[in-house]
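Key result, reporting period 2: structure in, sequence out.
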């Protein structure tokens, strides 16, 4: 018998809502091939590039236009017209390169074993690197233009549209190097990306993930993409075996994975040093124009409330009847009798009702387009990369990458990723390409705000105490995963970079000590740290996006603040929220949040999240006490 994720298999009939398939479709949690999945549940990448032949033609077009761009080297200070011509061409070429790269990458993500897709992605990476290297003269030349002259240039009608772009160059000019150095840095792009590529190849294609006996006695493969599905099982022995098998595999490859991550960190340290920053964190913050007080306040807010996290661990132990608490006890529902399953169509209908009632027709109409025009790739299949994301191009539209698992949490993931997609769609519609792309700092605000509002929307429609308890349980998982865990990750990432900056080696053992000590501090003496879980850091692909994880937490806090405006009945909340999304990258991220009524330099905004965490823990305990009193 073929190995299968039998323990996690969910089969039910669902008629396609799009009218594209007359026969009933049997939905599963893992498909052997993509051909088993009807087209309406697979994204259509031809909106980016019509196909492989057109992709090859786009590559040829890139080479031709690249020659035109190189012709501007050394001429940008000649006149406003010359600078405008160069910037127009740079961003037009950037749109073409993005189409080439995203088409290749998203195609490869649906089957990481496909040789042609891997070759196409490799070529696309080369094109991205070539573009970066050949455009690397632009910022240094602009930075060398005298401030007074550049100000005169910006007053020219053709350069007015580039005002924010040029202001950011002026702001960061102290860290922009000479044209020759910038060309070398850009030329090393493939080398800089190598650690991430090696990591993805290992975990997606090369590592043979272990099998365990599933709940029904059949073999079940423990792959990273299904980690939370296993952790949601009510069978504690299954959870334990799955967790130890998964983390034991990471631990088995720990030396190689540690070397891979160390290479990524050392790359960050080198780049920060070349650009004249005192640390990698300073470099990351300066590039987004965010003050250091923001991430520092995140860490302080959690450390001031570690007792609240420990209290929640004690509650879970008490409710679940556990003598000891492990990583595999953190995410399972404490209310199994209230667990519900959703087909994608059912989850979609639920989300659509929420979007219409909360954000209005403009938001919901874009979401419906995403469904009707096949912007969404729904189901997991053999070889498909795990996780979920929203991506796409300015020339086409956003895409949603899912691995539908049939739980309410999957509905939340749909709402989350659609938040990203709506943000990108509105930003692209309202801004020229150079002002459309928003900072990582605000990248999670739309998604997290939508998720927070969805929780509240669900709670308002729930009167049954058991169902309410289940939603509160999921809400705590949400705060744990999107806020607390991301700050935990940030502390790990900060410590790893600080060690490298101090010349200390990053090894499997040293990274394991950092990870293990942090986990023990966060979850307290009532939690048991399994040896295999010391390699838990190896499961986090976002560590290869330098200092990205903490923006989830700031976005979560901002999203909660925005959701608070909705909940208060503020009539201007929806308009302000959509106006913020439409700003894209046309203003600095802190200014964008100010448009939504959020000031993340105010510590109370961040600490409000921990206040909510305490309040939910108290409400859950109260419901359980009332239920116990009712039974006595």
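The corresponding designed sequence is given below.
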């Amino acid at each position: 018998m073929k190995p299968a994720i039998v323990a996690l298999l969910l089969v039910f009939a669902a008629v396609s809502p799009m009218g594209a398939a007359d026969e009933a479709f049997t939905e599963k949690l893992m498909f052997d091939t993509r051909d088993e999945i009807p087209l309406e549940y697979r994204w259509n990448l031809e909106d980016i590039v019509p196909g492989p032949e057109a992709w090859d033609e786009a590559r040829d077009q890139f080479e031709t236009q690249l020659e035109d761009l190189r012709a501007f080297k050394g001429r940008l200070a000649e006149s406003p017209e010359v600078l405008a011509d160069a910037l127009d061409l740079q961003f037009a070429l950037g749109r073409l390169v993005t189409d080439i790269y995203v088409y290749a990458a998203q195609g490869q993500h649906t089957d990481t074993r496909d040789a042609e897709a891997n070759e196409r992605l490799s070529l696309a990476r080369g094109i991205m690197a070539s573009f970066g290297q050949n455009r690397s003269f632009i910022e240094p030349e602009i930075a060398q233009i005298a401030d007074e002259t550049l100000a005169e240039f910006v007053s020219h009608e053709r350069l007015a549209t580039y005002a924010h772009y040029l202001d950011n160059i002026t702001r960061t000019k102290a860290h922009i190097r000479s044209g020759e150095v910038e060309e070398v840095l850009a030329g090393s792009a493939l080398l800089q990306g190598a650690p991430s590529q090696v990591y993805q190849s290992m975990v997606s294609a090369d590592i043979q993930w272990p099998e365990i006996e599933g709940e029904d006695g059949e073999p079940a493969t423990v792959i990273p993409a299904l980690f939370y599905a296993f952790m949601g099982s009510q069978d504690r022995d299954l959870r334990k075996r799955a967790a130890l098998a998964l983390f034991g595999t990471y631990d088995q490859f720990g030396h190689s994975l540690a070397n891979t991550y160390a290479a990524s960190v050392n790359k960050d340290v080198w780049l920060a040093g070349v650009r004249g920053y005192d640390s990698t964190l300073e470099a990351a913050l300066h590039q987004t124009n965010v003050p250091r007080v923001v991430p520092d306040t995140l860490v302080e807010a959690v450390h001031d409330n570690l007792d609240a996290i420990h209290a929640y661990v004690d509650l879970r132990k008490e409710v679940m009847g556990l003598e000891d608490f492990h990583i595999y006890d953190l995410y399972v529902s404490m209310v199994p009798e209230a667990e519900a399953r959703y087909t994608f169509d059912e989850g979609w209908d639920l989300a659509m009702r929420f979007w219409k009632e909360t954000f209005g027709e403009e938001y919901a109409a874009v979401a419906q387009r995403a469904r009707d025009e096949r912007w969404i790739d729904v189901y997991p299949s053999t070889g498909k990369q795990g996780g979920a994301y929203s991506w796409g191009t300015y020339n086409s539209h956003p895409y949603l990458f899912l691995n539908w698992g049939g739980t309410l949490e999957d509905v939340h993931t749909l709402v989350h990723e659609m938040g990203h997609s709506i943000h990108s769609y509105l930003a692209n519609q309202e801004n020229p390409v150079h002002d459309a792309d928003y900072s990582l700092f605000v990248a999670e605000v739309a998604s997290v705000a939508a998720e927070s509002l969805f929780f509240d929307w669900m709670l308002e429609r729930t009167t049954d105490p058991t169902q309410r308890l289940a939603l509160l349980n999921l809400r705590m998982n949400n705060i744990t995963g999107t806020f607390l865990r991301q700050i935990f990750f940030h502390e790990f990432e900060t410590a790893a970079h600080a060690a490298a900056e101090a010349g200390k080696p990053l090894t499997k053992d040293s990274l394991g000590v950092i990870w293990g000590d942090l986990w023990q501090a966060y979850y307290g003496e009532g939690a048991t740290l399994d040896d295999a879980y010391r390699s838990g850091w190896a499961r986090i692909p976002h560590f290869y996006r330098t200092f990205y994880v903490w923006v989830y937490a700031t976005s979560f806090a901002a999203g909660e603040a925005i959701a608070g405006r909705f909940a208060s009945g503020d009539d201007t909340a929806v308009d302000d929220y959509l106006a913020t999304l439409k700003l894209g990258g046309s203003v600095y991220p802190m200014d964008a949040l100010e448009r939504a009524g959020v000031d993340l330099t105010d510590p109370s905004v961040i600490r409000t999240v921990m206040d909510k965490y305490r309040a939910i823990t108290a409400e859950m305990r109260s419901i359980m006490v009332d239920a116990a009193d009712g039974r006595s």
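Residues 1-22 have pLDDT under 50 and may be disordered. The two ends are 50 Å apart (CA to CA). This case is discussed further under Risks and Mitigation.
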